[in-house]
Amino acid sequence: MILTLCISFYLPLTTNLLVTIKKEKTEVDLARVAYEQSQKIGLNQDLDSTWQTGKTHYIITLSEISQRKGIHIHYGGQTKEMDILSTQIITP
């Protein structure tokens, strides 16, 4: 009975933890892709149109509205948007 009680608390905890880790990994991947593409914009290079990390496939688009640039990353029906405030790179 004690073993069953311990397992009944452990399994939902582990499942929730794994789901949270997967969501956070996706957010970190999206932020990394956006950062790397923003660096390309700062260096006047072309953006990558797609990006693949493991089995995950991202589609990247550039938006320009009123001379403001931004990056849109599409993944699994979701979109992450990143506005670029300045394309000036300061080198120390």
Walk me through this protein's architecture.
The protein is of the alpha+beta class and 92 residues long. It contains one helix and four strands. A four-stranded antiparallel beta sheet has the order 1-2-3-4, covered by helices on one side. Strand 3 (68-75) and strand 4 (78-84) form a beta hairpin. The longest helix has 41 residues, at 2-42. The radius of gyration is 19 Å and the shape is elongated.
Q: Quote the distance from N terminus to C terminus.
A: 65 Å
Number of helices: 1
Helical coverage, percent range: 40-55%
Whole-number mean pLDDT:
83
Query: Which stretches of 5+ consecutive residues score pLDDT under 50?
Result: none
Looking across the biggest beta sheet, what order are the strands in?
1-2-3-4
Strand content: 25-35%
Please state the overall shape, judged from the principal axes of the Cα atoms: elongated
Order of helices and strands: HEEEE
Q: Look at the helices and sheets and give the structural class.
A: alpha+beta
Reported for the largest beta sheet, the result is: 4 strands, antiparallel
- Gyration radius (Cα, Å) is 19 Å
Give the structure's gist in a few sentences.
The chain has one helix at residues 2-42, and strands spanning 50-53, 56-65, 68-75, 78-84. With 92 residues, the protein is α+β, with helices and mostly antiparallel strands. β3 and β4 (78-84) form a beta hairpin.
Provide the fold topology:
Elements: H1 2-42, E1 50-53, E2 56-65, E3 68-75, E4 78-84
